Structure formats: C-alpha cells, structure tokens
Amino acid sequence: MLKDKFNRTIKYLRISLTESCNLQCFYCRPNQDKTFTSCQSYLTPDEMLLITRVFSELGVSHVRLSGGEPLLKKDICLLVKEISRLSGINDVSLTTNGILLKKFAPSLKNAGLHRLNISLDSITPSKFKEITGGGDLKKVLQGIDASLKYGLTPIKLNMVVMRGINDDEIIPMIKFCLKKRLILRLLEFMPIGNSSSDVKERHMPAKEIREKVAQHFPLEKSTLRGPGPASYEYVKGDGLMIGFIHAVSQHFCKTCNRVRLLSSGKLHLCLGHEDQVDLAAVIRTPGVSIEDLKETIQAAVWSKPSVHRFNKSGSTANKRIMSSIGG
Ligand code: SAM
To answer: Which ranges constitute the DSSP H helices of 222-266?
Structure first.
C-alpha cells in the first residue's frame, strides 16, 4: 500500500504521456515552446511501463493517461493494452481533447481502454476555435460519435467554466449532453499555468456554476462517487449526470488519492505545489533495483503535501504549465 503521512492511500496514478498537443488552449498552454522539457529526458514507453508496473505492485489500481494530448503519443494503443494487462490495474482511462478520436476510437476499445474523458469548453464552433487557438469543433464531435459507436462508454465531458469566456455555454452544453447521453463535468478554473492577471475574474466557484444550472434544470443529489473529485447530481426526471468539481473553492485534499507521473519521468505529488521527485534519474542509475525504485516512490508519496496552495500568497502554481502535468 502506498500511504502518505496524512494517512491517505494512493490508488490513482495519472500519467502525462507527452507535452505535445494539437490544440493551444489559451489557459492551458500559454507559452508552449519555451517551457518544454528537452526531448532526451522523456521516458520511453518501456520506462513508463516499468514505473507503472511498480506503482501497481504498490497498490495503485487506476491509471489515467493524459498529456499534452495523449493521442499524439506514438504507440498509445500498445501502452493502453500493456497497462490494462498489469495485474492490480482494474481501471485504465484517458483524457483527450477528442481531435483524433475518430481515428483512434476502435483501436482504443480493442486495446482495453475502460473509460474516456473528453475536454470540451465550448459547443459553438467560433468560440471553440478561439479558446483552442484554431481547433475544429467538428473533429471533436466526430470523435464523440465514434467513441459512442465503438462503446467507449461511459463518456465524461469535461468543461472548464470561465466567467466571461464560456459560462454562457453551460446550458447549451447540458442540452448537448442530454442529446448524446454523456456525463457532464463542470470544472472550476484553476490558477495554474496561467500568467494572465485576470485569473481571479475568470474563476467561477462551483457553487455559482451549480446555481446557474439549477435555474434551468431541477437537480437531485446523487450518492455516486468515482475515484475522482466530482460531486454528482442528476437532472431530475431525465437522469443526466452532472459532476461539479470545486478544486479551488472547496478543496478535496483530505481525500486526495492520486499522484502524477510526467513524461519527463518526474513524479508530481500535488497539483497545487512544486514538489517533484525524479524517477527517470532513479531508473537510469546503473545497478539500481526495483526495490530501490519502490523505496523512492514510497518516500516521495510519504512527503505528499497535505493541501494545495492555490489561494495562498507566494503560491507558484501559476508558473506551471498544465499541459505538461496532465490536468
Ligand atoms: N489534451 C488533453 C485534453 O485536452 O483533455 C489532456 C491534457 S489537458 C491538460 C487535461 C485537462 O486539464 C483539460 O480538461 C483541461 O481543460 C484541463 N485544464 C487545463 N488547465 C486548466 C486550468 N487552469 N483549470 C482547470 N482545468 C484545466
């Protein structure tokens, strides 16, 4: 079992497979080129697999693949297949912007992917293009249809709500999800990887997001809790599930069950802190054993911070780039 000193058990590993992305969402990748890790230090697929196997031996049962854009990772389907075959791993999920999903949906299904999250902040082509730096909404919609067709369900659609940017799209997004039978998750905008001074203005607390929804759709509390941080409610009479993710306003650090492995091989212990441990350096040290790697991971997890520092003065969260951490 992987435990930290606050008695939290870590069962969930998020892996950022690559820093590359085929979209340039203004809030996620503001200065992409300047912040990239040098190519030589990226983990190879075999190294990723080795580290994931060791995590599974230490009790991790859920792996989520993210990025950058994970579907840009060469051999992504092979990685999904190998990870889902690891004993102890019973849930392999993927977070994607959906641009390449039409092509990948059948092979991801065959590879054994269990669940899919698709990020979509706007259902209006022009606004989608604006937010994503030129993205084509049609491709994402085709990707969603292909995923439904090949049974990559349940599909969760993640929308980061930003005041003055896309808060007017919450209701159209719910209608879209009702039509397609997707689960919608409405995320608070986090002050991370975002150098602009209007972060505070853009942030809309989950409570306010929920009120906006409840004005149009009657909601009913759900007892459902996934491995993640969402609190779910149903649209009454219809059954559509909506998750509200209050990462900033009402943090869920006490029940945090995750750590993040970056494509550079660094283990990132908390989204709201800088702390990282270089696992690539460990596995590339001549003569190092699996036991050494296990001990490094256990010691790193033990030192996981108790709580994020998003709202604290002196927080350096906004210096990090979400597209390299994987969300
Ligand atoms: N390219 C994939 C995608 O778009 O889903 C995976 C990587 S992306 C970094 C993962 C998630 O992080 C996306 O849903 C994105 O909206 C979210 N994200 C990025 N920056 C964020 C921020 N400042 N606050 C909240 N969510 C953020």
So the answer is: none
> Does the CB atom of residue 82 touch ligand 1 within 6 A?
no
Pairing of strands 12-16, 258-261: parallel
What is the rounded average pLDDT of the residues 157-182?
96
Distance CA 8, CA 196 (A): 34
Which of these, 60, 69, 62, lies nearest to 17 by C-alpha position?
69
Count of positions (residues) in the chain: 327
Any ligand 1 atom below 6 A from CB of 16: no
CA 284 to ligand 1 centroid distance, Å? 30
The model's pTM: 0.92
The reply to whether ligand 1 has any atom less than 6 angstroms from the CB of 229 is no
Question: 115-119 and 62-66: which strand pairing?
Answer: unpaired
pLDDT of residue 190: 86
Residue 248 three-state SS: coil
